[in-house]
């Protein structure tokens, strides 16, 4: 059985982004890429991910932009405006990282999904739009649109879950625009609202777990 504890998994530093890999112990070939929110690191989403998918392998990645004594995925101008060159540069680098991590860990693209929170969710949505073909399923917690100019990417066949907080006064008002954007590009979007602010917790885990579950066989 592979060790899945944060304490016993050292960050790997030989790819473009530092990351920790938590094995499934052979119980599943499902895999989640985890992208944390602002000001923290790659370990913070691991407990939530274990609630969502106890037997999946986890690729917990650390953003490369240092800001406010923590890590981010791209540079911020204000809480709701972002440096566009930084978004595109970091998203391109992350696309290469995903391809390399998939090869290294023999990850089946049909069995993987992305879980992003806040700034991490915004990186995932940018990845979907700027580098199509890597993301098949994405659970985006407290996201907002961040690209000033969006390409006419065909997202047909892509599934996205967007979970906004009813009391999230900063990002919440922007979530509907992201739902519209991804839907217009052809993605199958499931939009939910939970009774919380920008923080995430058990209600989010329950929603994502249900969303990722395979459909029940027909009776």
Mind explaining what this structure looks like?
It is a single chain. This protein has 219 residues and is an alpha/beta fold. The chain has one domain: Rossmann fold (3-Layer(aba) Sandwich), CATH 3.40.50.1820. It has 5 helices and 11 strands; from the N terminus they run E-E-H-E-E-E-E-E-H-E-H-E-E-H-E-H. The strands form 3 sheets. A 7-stranded mixed sheet has the order 1-3-2-8-9-10-11, sandwiched between helices. Strands 4-5 form a two-stranded antiparallel ribbon. Strand 8, helix 3 and strand 9 form a beta-alpha-beta unit. It is globular. The mean pLDDT is 93.
How large, in whole angstroms, is the Cα Rg? 16 Å
User: Numbering strands along the chain, what is their spatial order in the largest sheet?
Assistant: 1-3-2-8-9-10-11
Estimate the strand proportion: 15-25%
State the secondary-structure class: alpha/beta
Distance between the termini: 35 Å
The CATH architecture classification is 3-Layer(aba) Sandwich
How does the overall form come out from the CA principal axes? globular
Please give the domain count: 1
Mind sketching the topology for me?
Layout: E1 19-22, E2 31-35, H1 46-52, E3 57-61, E4 65-67, E5 70-72, E6 76-78, E7 81-82, H2 84-105, E8 112-117, H3 119-130, E9 137-141, E10 159-165, H4 175-184, E11 188-194, H5 202-212
Parallel strand pairs: 2-3, 2-8, 8-9, 9-10, 10-11
Antiparallel strand pairs: 1-3, 4-5, 6-7
Helix pairs in contact: 1-5, 2-3
Task: Using brief descriptors, characterize the structure shown.
single chain; 219 residues; alpha/beta; Rossmann fold; seven-stranded mixed beta sheet; two-stranded antiparallel ribbon; 5 helices; globular
């Amino acid at each position: 059985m592979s060790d899945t504890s944060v304490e016993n998994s050292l960050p790997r530093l030989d790819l473009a982004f530092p990351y920790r890999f938590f094995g499934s112990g052979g119980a599943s070939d499902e895999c989640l890429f985890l992208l944390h929110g602002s000001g923290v690191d790659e370990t913070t989403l691991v407990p939530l991910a274990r609630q969502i998918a106890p037997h999946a392998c986890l690729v917990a990645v650390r953003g490369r932009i240092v800001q406010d004594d923590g890590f981010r995925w791209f540079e911020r101008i204000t809480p709701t405006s972002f440096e566009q060159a930084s978004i595109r540069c970091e998203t391109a680098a992350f696309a290469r990282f995903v391809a390399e991590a998939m090869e290294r860990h023999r990850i089946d693209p049909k069995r993987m999904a992305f879980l992003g929170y806040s700034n991490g969710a915004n990186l995932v949505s940018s990845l979907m739009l700027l580098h199509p073909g890597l993301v098949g399923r994405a659970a985006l917690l407290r996201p907002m649109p961040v690209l000033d100019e969006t390409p006419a990417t065909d997202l047909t066949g892509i599934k996205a879950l967007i979970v906004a907080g009813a009391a999230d006064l900063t990002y919440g008002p922007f979530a509907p625009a992201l739902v519209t954007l991804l839907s217009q590009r052809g993605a199958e979007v499931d939009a939910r609202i939970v009774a919380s602010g920008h923080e995430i917790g058990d209600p989010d885990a329950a929603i994502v777990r249900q969303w990722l579950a395979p459909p029940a066989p027909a009776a």
